[in-house]
Amino acid sequence: MRRALLPIALLLAGAAHADSTLPASPLAYTQLPDPDQEAQAKALMETLRCLVCQGQSIADSDADMAGEMRALVRQRIAAGERPAQVRKWLMERYGDYVTYDPPLSWVTAPLWIAPLALLALGLLIARRLFKRKTA
């Protein structure tokens, strides 16, 4: 019985230590003093994907990684960088996956082409099915 409980206890102990014990970056949860800069930073954060959660933007996520990314965005906006420059820097650092709107390239082409190809395939199948019924 004890041998059966050991793997479960190890799994639970690992999950309990998954979060970082380091303090969050000061700008992770603090807004910038300039309202215009904060609005720019917030708008940019809404368009960036949390690399841990993957379904939330970094503005909505509570993950440590998202907090660090929010702090990076705010630091760079406060330093005078434009949101497009910050977005480009983050994409160079973390890859195109960090944005909800990846640029068209050879790597991201399937993301842009697949929905159109599936729609065309569905229309072709529907057309053939309707032709058979009328004939």
Number of strands: 0
As a percent range, the share of strand residues is under 5%
Radius of gyration: 23 Å
Name the shape in a single word.
flat
Poorly predicted runs of 5 or more residues:
none
Structural class: mainly alpha
Describe this structure in words.
The chain has 5 helices and no strands. It has helices spanning 2-16, 35-46, 64-78, 83-94, 109-134. The chain is flat. It starts with a helix and ends with a helix. 11% of the residues are buried. The mean pLDDT is 81.
Short structural description:
The protein is an all-alpha fold and 135 residues long. Helices cover 59% and strands 0% of the residues.
Topology:
Layout: H1 2-16, H2 35-46, H3 64-78, H4 83-94, H5 109-134
List descriptors:
135 residues, mainly alpha, 59% helix
